[in-house]
Design a protein that fits this description.
Blueprint: H1 2-22, H2 29-42, H3 45-51, E1 52-59, E2 65-67, H4 68-76, E3 80-94, E4 98-111, E5 114-129, E6 132-142
Parallel strand pairs: 1-6
Antiparallel strand pairs: 1-2, 3-4, 4-5, 5-6
Helix pairs in contact: 2-3
Length: about 140
């Protein structure tokens, strides 16, 4: 009986360790920005909600401002679908608990079943609050 309980505790301990490892928090603004784009690509609404600040906003390709709830709902309900996305030219400026990440995102997807394929320049502002990095603002501008 003792061996069975020991095996059960060891299995539970390793499962807990695995679960914690798969939900790692970004350690800086660059990782935070990368996690944002990965959540969009994976259509992972839970990861997106974990990485977005409460006061998050994004200025989209067409100049429209979208808040956290609207983006989250759009991803969760399949209105926003990113089929492919490649980031390049990433540059991070670190200001302590604030980081500004810029670069280029070559993206293909759909918004409300309207397909798009664009190369956009992006700016992601991430903030460290309460020990966690969160994306506060994103600006996307199509490259002409």
């Amino acid at each position: 009986m003792k061996k069975l309980m020991l095996c059960g505790l060891l299995a539970l301990g390793s499962l807990t360790t695995y679960a914690q490892a798969s939900f790692s928090r970004p350690q800086d603004a660059t990782e935070c920005s990368n996690a944002f784009f990965k959540a969009l690509l994976d259509e992972d609404n839970n990861a997106l909600n974990n990485i977005l600040a409460d006061d998050f906003s994004i200025v989209s390709f067409d100049g429209q401002q979208v808040d956290r709830d609207m983006l989250s709902q759009g991803v969760a309900q399949g209105y926003i679908v990113v089929d492919t996305g490649m980031i390049s030219g990433t540059r991070t400026r670190d200001y302590g608990d604030v980081g500004v990440v810029t670069g280029t995102w070559n993206v293909k997807g759909k918004i409300e079943n309207n397909g798009f394929q664009n190369e956009v320049t992006y700016t992601v502002v991430s903030v460290k609050k309460g020990g966690s990095w969160k994306v506060s603002a994103v600006q996307l501008t199509p490259v002409q």
